[in-house]
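It would be a great kindness if you could assist me with a short task in structural biology. The matter concerns a single protein, recorded as an amino acid sequence and a row of backbone structure tokens. The record follows directly beneath this note:
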Amino acid sequence: MMSMKNVYKKGDIILVKYPFTNLIEFKVRPAVILRDQSDNDVIVLPISTTMYKQKYDLRIDNDFYKEKPLPVESIVRIGKIMTIESDLVVKKISSFKKEFFACIQKALIQYLQFR
């Protein structure tokens, strides 16, 4: 059973160990939790400093943070949803305000609509 200190909530910004294809090395990058954690997996969207300009990517303004903002201008990559093991989470570093998280949810719903 998980201890309460390791449970992540929707809107939390975390650092994640993203494994390289060799599955030995990894890089640490930020991501946002999409739903409250209920088991050993978390569903996330990556946060990037590379401005890809994809239709559903959302730019993050400093006033969208509930806590300390990220040090570099960033975007949420809506089209890159992932489920990862919570063991890959390094730590929580911040969180988004409810209003911006609602924008993330809306963009994700629009992205997932099948045409």
The chain is about 15% helix and 35% strand.
